[in-house]
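Revision sheet: structure tokens.
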Amino acid sequence: TLRPTVFPSVPRLFNRIHDKIMDQVEQKGGVSKMLFTKAFEAKKYNMNLSPGSLDHGFWDALVFAKIRGRTGLDRCRLMCTGSAPIASHVLAFLRVVFGCPVVE
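Predicted:
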């Protein structure tokens, strides 16, 4: 399996990654969905407080590390996108879940 450290792609693929992860969260439901939602909101709040911070020790280890591992992007340090604009909610989602800068 490929586990890239730099992941250049088009917005369409990033949208599909976003949709697939959100579908899996919805399918699991219950406690898993609640934990993901809480982790996402807490990390997004922390990122808004200190814009340079992309990691959250507790939520990254508990929730987001599993998602990164399943997608094969656990070693990713930079995501680049081009050729078309990417939706702002997808951009924020990628930064929160994968904990790396996403450059347009």
